[in-house]
């Protein structure tokens, strides 16, 4: 269980320019993205030798492929005249520049320069191979780092594997993928999911059945987490902010919680969990207490997973889940909310078509789920450029509706800095402290 | 008109009468051989007409030029008998030659 060291009362501040200034965005592009490990995709996206994907961030483009001996990654640029080599994703046994045909094998080595004799041997001393990028995996994600001398992925992740390995994210597969093009800074989009302090005001329907919505949050080195550790109440009960319990029958509250998550979010808990939870009406008496109702629903979910050819992760005990908390920020640009049967994963980036614009980002939402062998669906990314008129479900719509209002509001002449909650919004606070160390060379304030 | 034998990756056999002087890639395309794509038309910029020449038929045709050899080395499932079919010209000598097609082109 997490505990918070006592400290003198303080009111943290976050500079508005971090979100709104073009200069800061340019400094991020120069000092941040090339120095950190980043999620480039999922291991499941590259199944056969020659399968590749591209990952664009700020002004950089990286191509990752499955070579004969495992994953390889390169800067996605032809050393000849600078054309990008690969586009999107696909399968190819070599990278061949569409401009003049220079060709590179999956080891990044140049194997063909058209009319090479024209250089009369002078090319032998020139760099004509692809520039390598470091690549590694954790949690079923492909991670890349452009910093060839930097720390390893394991060092970079710090305590994250200790807390999140029990969730076996590598055993999950895509349930659905959304890519939103938003008129906000990439951090505004990500931070909508980095604290639980907003839930009562932004998602009022949820606090009728989500237990105690009060959160605590903690820095974990560069990364951070939040959870529901104080005056814990079972799922299905009403927030103490409300007078009394909305559902007199605890079973109905639990089912309503799983219904909202399934119908209004479609992630973290799964359709299988919702169907299983409904069975508590049959197996428990009407006067069952809230804790029994929640635990029984979870155990029915575990059984449903087994019946479907999969399982809940063996090492993911209730203790391990309580230790991890509900939500992790993985510096700089990912957030995850993992559960027994599924997980949500968010990834935010500046829009690489206009990389110095602080008011634009590409924001992805990935719903992951454990599937029985061969039962995972073929998933296409749904690209949304008009989130006002295209829904991604009630809960995410409510979050997204805040984003453009935040980006616009922060430009007010009176708004010089944000005033985050020192207990519940430590993920956001720690994010900017760490970010400023990379971008400005030191943490301010 | 030499008769060429194409064997798709799934084992399907297609016998094709090729016009002398055209490339093996074009003969295969005209006959609807699925395992030969030949997207670039034969100028060695797409590498999607890769095939395996039956070892017994290798000496029925001239060996690959330097550029073709270098490009072949960049194909993941390359073998000793790999060729780009766009660089093989159909001649009377090719009568009965067999071309096996890889699982995928790229």
Automatic annotation (TrEMBL), chain A:
GO molecular function: dioxygenase activity
Cofactor(s) named in the record: Fe cation
SUPFAM superfamilies in alphabetical order: Bet v1-like, ISP domain
This protein's record includes keyword Ligase: no
Keywords from the UniProt entry: 2Fe-2S, Dioxygenase, Iron, Iron-sulfur, Metal-binding, NAD, Oxidoreductase
PROSITE patterns linked to this entry: RIESKE, RING_HYDROXYL_ALPHA
Alphabetized Pfam families for the sequence: Rieske (PF00355), Ring_hydroxyl_A (PF00848)
Domain Rieske residue range list: 37-144
Coiled-coil positions: none
Keyword Iron-sulfur: yes
Protein name in UniProt: Aromatic ring-hydroxylating dioxygenase subunit alpha
Organism name: Sphingobium cyanobacteriorum
UniProtKB/TrEMBL annotation, chain B:
Domain 2Fe-2S ferredoxin-type: 2-105
InterPro entries: 2Fe-2S_ferredoxin-like_sf, 2Fe-2S_ferredoxin-type, Adrenodoxin-like, Beta-grasp_dom_sf
Keyword annotations of the record: 2Fe-2S, Iron, Iron-sulfur, Metal-binding
Entry annotated with the keyword Cell membrane: no
Keyword Iron among UniProt keywords: yes
Needed co-factor(s): [2Fe-2S] cluster
Transmembrane segment boundaries: none
Family stated for the protein in its record: Belongs to the adrenodoxin/putidaredoxin family.
Protein name: 2Fe-2S iron-sulfur cluster-binding protein
